[in-house]
Amino acid sequence: MSEMGPNLSLALSASEVWVVATAVCCAVACALPGCFLVLRRLSMLGDAIAHAILPGLALAFLITQSRAPAPMLVGAMAAGLIAAAGSAGVRRLARLPEDTSLGLVFSAMFALGVILISFAARSVDLDPGCVLYGMLELVNFDRVVIMGVEMPRSFAWLAAVLGVNAIVIALLFKELRLTSFDPELARSMGLSPWLVGSVLLVLTTATCVASFEAVGSILVVAMLVAPGASASLLTARLGRMLLLAAVIAGSTAVGGYLLAARLNVTAAGMMSALSGGVFVACVLLSPRRGVLPSALRRLGLTVRIAREDLLADAYRAEEPSSPVVIGVPSTIEGRPRRHGRSVLSAVARWSARWRGELLSGDALTDRGRSTARDLIRSHRLWESYLASHLPLAADHLHEPSHRAEHFIDPQTQRDIARQVPDAASDPHGKPIPAGDHGVT
């Protein structure tokens, strides 16, 4: 039974090391230009290029009857440029959205490429299936010797492409960054966004060509988009984004191959699925923009506001009755709210008691009274500021001040106090509690 089951060993043979190294080179080579495609909102362009170069590869083979890299690269470059120019032409002439024109052009060229490859496959061992998932597990059967080291030809090509991508991006880092974030500013500084974009297009096309035979279009498309999109959720710095994208791409290549070996499935497909899984994890868990951290921050803010409302109302309940201001209803500032027994109220009470701000029976501790006094001071100062600087009626002051009191920091509170230096009470006649060092 154990011989028929999946391979559970994580140890790699020498031939498997070359396969993994080829996959890592391909993934990182795709991820680097893919970051700029993501920033430029041109992720579909990478998908279009990966599909549109197929007729160029097929025509190059039909004309030369050879799978030599040079004619394949020329054919793919020509097809990629035609796809980009064709998409722009369709968008301009038919006045279609960019995504629609891209979809029309790359789907038509991909279909043409499949037909051409089907014709070519009648006379040679050219499998249209390798267009989708490649022949990553078979790269060791086509080897070359470089500087005395025997290695797979696909690895040599992909390592060279990775090196070229890294060098070009390093040399044009400022230009790529400027044209990606603010093309109008780049144009005003004498840079040509079109020229820089063309360089990025050439890099992407060359990477797709070098990767196609080994890993197929599935992995190329996934690695052009997923690592860059995942990295963009983790950082706002471009340099870190490139580094994180490279790390994510390399890690998913290694992890995908190990999982594919264990489950006995295609390696390129598993790597693509794993890269998608990493992106989903970043969407859910990213500290900056993740769904779960954002939900937890919103929940924490909701509980904090409910707790502070509870403390402020307990403080108001302790205050002596204030004199009635003529013309101002006595309920304007708001009587202590009935917080009820809702889940939020229960959590707010538990939080206040856990922080040592509230005793049983909603009685304030010294710490809670200090917190509540600060809230009430912010509230009434803001009411005084609004009344003196804006033509608002007295019954329109409480609600905006109630919302603002939770977000007024000490420095802002001092600034507001300087704007209303003579205010000892708010517009409703309620005394403004003293601030730091007894300053009103």
Main attributes of the structure:
16 helices; single chain; 3% strand; mainly alpha; 440 residues
The biggest sheet, with number of strands, parallel, antiparallel or mixed sense and barrel status, is: 2 strands, antiparallel
* Mean of pLDDT: 81
Q: List segments where confidence is low: pLDDT < 50 over at least 5 consecutive residues.
A: 1-9, 323-332
Total count of strands: 4
3D shape:
elongated
Order of helices and strands: HHHHHEEHHHHHHHHEEHHH
What is the CA–CA distance across the termini? Answer: 83 Å
Helical content band = 55-70%
Biggest β-sheet: strands ordered side by side in the sheet: 1-2
Q: What is the radius of gyration computed over CA atoms, rounded to a whole number of angstroms?
A: 32 Å
The SS-based structural class is mainly alpha
Strand content: under 5%
Quickly count the helices.
16
Please give a structural write-up:
With 440 residues, the chain is mostly helical. 69% of the residues lie in helices and 3% in strands. It is built from 16 helices and four strands. The strands form two sheets. The chain has a two-stranded antiparallel ribbon. Helix 2 (43-64) crosses helix 3 (69-94) and helix 3 (69-94) packs antiparallel against helix 4 (98-120). 38% of the residues are buried.
